[in-house]
């Protein structure tokens, strides 16, 4: 019998649906994240709020605002199996349970929901990934792991969409741009740098250092939040990636959204 091994990164993204009561609102992508011995569900601000992150207007044509997020999560099994599990977005008073950036708030399109994971689910947290020490640079190829138009394989694993880093990622800005043709449903996707070959820690010197290496490595670089649109979607196929550090800033800030 042939043993089939699934890439660990493919087990991280979670297909999600937001809902208000019995009404489904949108589909997106999310993932679990571990910090300070607690677990969190990470997606975009516009996904968990149901609002445009710039205008604050409801995204649903009927102005529905989500009260829960349904996750097609991995079962606690030796096999790749999925089951739907619901996490409430609001507390008993109708206020958001999820956290936003403590200083930039909705200007950072990332939101973090504290969650309790039942024993029936298997947790593949994004930061459980064994990362290689690398520096992300403009022109690097990265992968956006999500569910474009809800597309997934037979056991709910995601689609890997290739993207090229299109703006300098090393600035102090909380986000950078990627050149890619993504589609609705990929909001909240983790973005992975998978590097194969010779990695040079300092490209300004020809000398080889102890920090340089040859081989393959992965690194989590951020959270995808959608296209930067021009006059038409085909005019500039640029997407926004929020740097991975904003997740820790949101969790450590502990600031609940107020909308």
* Name given to the CATH architecture of the largest domain: Beta Barrel
Number of helices: 2
State the distance separating the first and last CA atoms: 54 Å
Number of domains: 2
Q: How does the helix and strand content classify structurally?
A: mainly beta
Which regions have little confidence, pLDDT < 50, spanning 5+ residues? none
Nutshell version of this structure?
With 259 residues, the protein is mainly β. The chain is 5% helix and 37% strand. The chain has two domains: 118 residues, Thrombin, subunit H; 118 residues, Thrombin, subunit H, CATH 2.40.10.10.
Question: Could you walk me through the main structural features you see in this protein, from its secondary elements to its overall organization?
Answer:
The protein is mostly beta strands and 259 residues long. It has two domains: 118 residues, Thrombin, subunit H, CATH 2.40.10; 118 residues, Trypsin-like serine proteases (Thrombin, subunit H, Beta Barrel), CATH 2.40.10. Helix content is 5%, strand content 37%. The protein is built from two helices and twelve strands; from the N terminus they run βββαβββββββββα. The protein has a six-stranded antiparallel β-sheet. Strand 2 and strand 3 form a beta hairpin. It is globular, with a radius of gyration of 18 Å. The N and C termini lie far apart (54 Å). The model has no long low-confidence stretch (mean pLDDT 88).
């Amino acid at each position: 019998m042939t043993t089939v091994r699934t890439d660990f990164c493919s087990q991280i993204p979670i297909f999600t649906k937001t809902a208000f009561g019995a009404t489904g609102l949108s589909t997106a992508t999310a993932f679990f994240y571990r910090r300070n011995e607690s677990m969190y569900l990470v997606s975009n601000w516009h996904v968990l709020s149901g609002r445009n992150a710039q205008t604050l207007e409801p995204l649903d044509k009927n102005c529905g605002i989500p009260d829960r997020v349904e996750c097609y999560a991995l079962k606690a099994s030796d096999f790749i199996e999925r089951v739907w599990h619901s996490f409430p977005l609001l507390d008993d008073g109708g206020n958001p349970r999820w956290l936003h950036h403590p200083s930039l708030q909705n200007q950072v399109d990332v939101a973090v929901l504290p969650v309790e994971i039942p024993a029936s689910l298997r947790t593949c947290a994004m930061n459980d990934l064994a990362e290689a020490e690398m520096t992300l640079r403009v022109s690097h190829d990265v992968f956006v792991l999500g569910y474009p138009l809800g597309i997934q394989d037979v056991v709910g694993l995601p689609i890997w969409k290739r993207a090229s880093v299109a703006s300098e990622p090393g600035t102090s800005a909380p986000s950078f741009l990627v050149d890619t043709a993504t589609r609705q449903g990929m909001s909240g996707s983790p973005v992975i740098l998978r590097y194969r070959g010779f990695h040079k820690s300092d490209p300004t010197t020809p000398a080889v250092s102890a920090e340089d290496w040859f081989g393959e490595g992965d690194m989590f670089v951020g959270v995808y939040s959608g296209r930067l649109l021009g006059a038409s979607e085909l005019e500039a196929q640029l997407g926004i990636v929020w740097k991975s550090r904003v997740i820790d800033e949101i969790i450590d800030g502990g600031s609940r959204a107020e909308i």
